[in-house]
Amino acid sequence: MLTKILITLLIIVAAMLYIRKPREQGVRANTKELAKNIKLRIAGYILIGLSLTATAAYWYWDWNDSRQVVSVTIVSPVSDDSVVYQVRKKDITSNEITTIDGIRIRLSNQERIIVANTVNE
Questions:
Q1: pTM
Q2: Cα dist. 121→3, 66, 82, 87, 109 in Å?
Q3: Phi and psi for 66 in degrees, rounded to 5?
Q4: What is the pLDDT of residues 78-108, one digit of tens each?
Q5: Distance from C-alpha of 41 to C-alpha of 71, rounded to nearest angstrom
């Protein structure tokens, strides 16, 4: 994940440096070319801004979703007992869950878990 972030930042910095690179001094551009270049720069900055906004929104949504509290019911195959725990989504793994109270519960291969959204946190 960190690698993706670093590559994205590298591409953004390279694009900004390329956009800001000065033109050759000997060539004079006419007004239409300058207007076209300004429009391209504005479009580039808008695209960069939109991509950064979308990335930040996705990170916020993922962070907020992983903090959501769900009810996890563990059903044992040996007995008919079932236990319900309140767990954050980020704390559910394939063989272990950690409750809101900090209790770590290891799951066996035979146990079945049922995850249900909790209405109130």
A1: 0.57
A2: 34, 13, 22, 11, 29
A3: -70, -20
A4: 887 888 999 999 999 888 999 999 999 998 8
A5: 50
